[in-house]
Input
Amino acid sequence: MAAVADYISKAGENAVELKAQARAESLKLASLTLPGLLIIAVIVLVPIAWLFWLSFRSGDAFTFEHYERLLHPSYLSSLQTTFELSFLVTGLCIVLGYPVAYLMTQVRERMAALLMMFVLFPVWTSLLVRCYAWLVLLQRRGIVNNWLLDVGLIDAPLRLMHNFTGTTIGMVHIMLPFMVLPLYASMRAISRDYMKAAANLGASPVQAFWQIFVPLSLPGLAAGIIIVFVLCLGFYVTPALLGGGRVMMWSMQIERNVTYYSDWGAASALGVVLLVMTLAVLWLVGRVIGFDKMLGAK
Amino acid sequence: MGQISLPITIRNVTKAYGGFRALDNVSLDVASGEFLTLLGPSGSGKTTLLNVLAGFIRPDSGKVLFGENDITLTPPHKRDIGMVFQNYALFPHMTVAGNLAYPLKLRRVSRAEIEERVRRALDIVQLSGFEDRHVDQLSGGQKQRVALARAIIFEPRVVLMDEPLSALDKKLREHMQIEVRHLHQRLGMTTVYVTHDQREALTMSDRIAVIDKGRFRQIDKPRDIYERPRSRFIAEFIGESYFLPVTVSGTEAVFGGQKLRLAETPFSTSPSQFLVIRPEKLKIVTTGEDTSGLNLFRGRVKELVYQGETLLISVELPGGEEIGVRQPTSSAAPPPPEAGAEVVVGLAFDDTIIVPDEN
Output
């Protein structure tokens, strides 16, 4: 019995030291993330705050004039173009990307790796190079038009660039990998047993696809939609090059205000509106599918 | 939920992957309403055969019949088989009721009847009131029951189970074994059950088909598989065994110059075979005890290992062979010998089984 009493008196031994060790460990871990957090704070949060401040300033006075100006028809039509294009590009990316991602989950591993190469290859190439390549392909006497003429599908060259069509084609091409990658990641996580179970319970392959596979791939689809749509909202290079100045995106209005008019107040207001719209889209999607799913937590 | 069950006929089914024969000309009859277990080590072909029955794997040749119907070429969704998967494969985007209703919806069962049948199925697996739970809110055992309910709710005539209990912990697994067994007795559907757990197979089955390297090694009732193994492989795979080499000529078997009385005449004519020693069938004979009806072996106690419900006594025979004797740890059991003691071990004639090395 003496031995037992001995143990009891020593309960709590080392408790303080063990706790301190645990705390030191989490501190070390936190210190690793500190540089990243600092950079984000300095080069993202501070400029955003500064822009926000600028957008309400005229000279030394507080003003709403930059925001009032955005109600002008030219800005409103820009806003409309931006959203139309973003919706269209996102929609086309879904239609084109879903089957590719699905195919990648169905073929052998080596074939899937090869397909992944094809998906990623454009991402490794400069954005500018790809846009100019599209200019070559889509111009009046370009490869696409010549081929269509030769085959006899058209009688006169189509206007494929310096308009909405060209911008759409280029942007779909640029955005497609951002749709395929999250889709593929979420599709790969769908156990084949679900499809087997569906078949076993009496679902035809088509029923199993729509009733089981598609719903289970929705988190990936949502991630793809968010990435593509948000990137589209602020996209500049491709619409500028392939739109030929005829497709006025919101981002191009920002650029005009800065380079032509040196009007930082107006540009800042545009930027703030774009940021708010982006956050609104994220919030909306989050409301529909749940924030945890959107952020990839199961 | 009375169900009309169907017999299954498997004829000459072969499936090869490259040079590897997962199923090598396999034939089997499962009687209507029978609970048959496919038992084998991993890679033996048991899961392949189950997948052939479900229609997920196309055999290279052979034939599968449910009743009179040749279903070899029928796609899986038209086979009308219930299946319980190893990881349950419950649809995570549906509730419990949604999972159970799914096969019924596909069969265009009316809404009212679906509701009624979901209720009854949950009642059968003792999960009443769980309709609206999400799958990830269920414990392993509950998922198991939902999977079971989903496999039987559309009253299939054949149910397949692919190691359905392997993910559960030991206590729950043993409990579910009995429950699945009761469910089968109640509903009477022809069931093919796959497991690598020999105790599970012994507990649950009407018959066990032991499969290895794509071939059946023995198909028998649990008691016969255990008590009357037909080969060293079976005796080794099922239960704990020690093997002593014996020389067989005609109906006689001799071990170390000692003639053995056998339970039955050896079915193999091979001259060199093995005596199967199951440790729990052996007993240490005390002096003055009646030893009629026992084959006796002399030996020396090498080691005693306490294992809870039994004591494992290692005995070294004069020829250097080692055998194990299991003795209950009950205080009513005779006191165990000490290490180093000379002992006599008895094996009843009825338990003296000779097996050939191979089938």
